[in-house]
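thread: overnight batch results

M.L. [08:02]
morning all. the overnight job finished for the chain we discussed friday. pasting input first so we're all looking at the same thing
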Amino acid sequence: MDQSSNNPQTMARISDIINKNNAGVIILPINPSFDTLAAGTSLYLSLLKMGKTVTLVCSSQVNEDLVAIDKIQNNFSINGNSLVISFPYSDGAIDKVDYNIQGENFNLIISPRPGSPKLNQNQVKYSYSGGNFQFIIVIDSPSLNRLGEIYTNNQNQFQGKDIINIDRHLTNSQYGTVNLVNKTISSISQLVFKIIQSLDIVIDKDIATNLYTGIVTSTNNFTSYSVNADTFEASAQLLRIGAVKKPFKRSVNQSIPRFVQTGKPRESQPTKPIELVEKEPIPDEKPTTPQDWLKPKIFKGGGLI
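M.L. [08:03]
and the structure it wrote out:
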């Protein structure tokens, strides 16, 4: 059943799940739209303001002009006690991983395969994993399979968790513990704005800017057929809060006209209706299992494990 964003029982259920738990994960679908990224980052920032431990993840690599876009991870984890050292890797590039202890220092030694470039220390990232979480929020995905490897490689992590399904696709499969699916709303950002308001979170300038930009982009600068009085009312509220109006431009994920100084849009391919886009098949996943000889060899104390 479609549970509208105006359904107070649905909103109350979402608030109850978030308020009673301390940690959660927000997951975005593969190839997320700008609107989806804006909604995801806004909800992430909002839950942090509530004091929640939250991780924002997506199977796809993304790069947009949004606050907290750099917080999106490609692995399914929540902050814990296990230190994770991450860096770009291609099959066969690493020959072995070794370690030694010198005094009070633990040294991790990563040796590249002969002929491969050495590891760039500026590309090394550090994070923590192994933590527990109680709820999962899925944004703008009609099914769990649309989450890509985040779901297919971690299906056991979804078991026993409260799943909050926030979406506007016509074909949503209602897979959540609670389903907030509004098929007529203008954008996911507008829908997430309602959730943030229901949580009584004080929306700051960054959150307001992300949400407003998401609405503007999703509605093609308020020209979409789905725009109504509620859309303009939400946008007005965000502007009053302090949302910054950014130059309207085409996202890498959407065919939206870029407005130049003359105020006229450049010619672009027409945007596909959402009901056609969501019928497109999910792209086949490429095999990710590397050959055994390509895997790094782990040494401990000079011996092969």
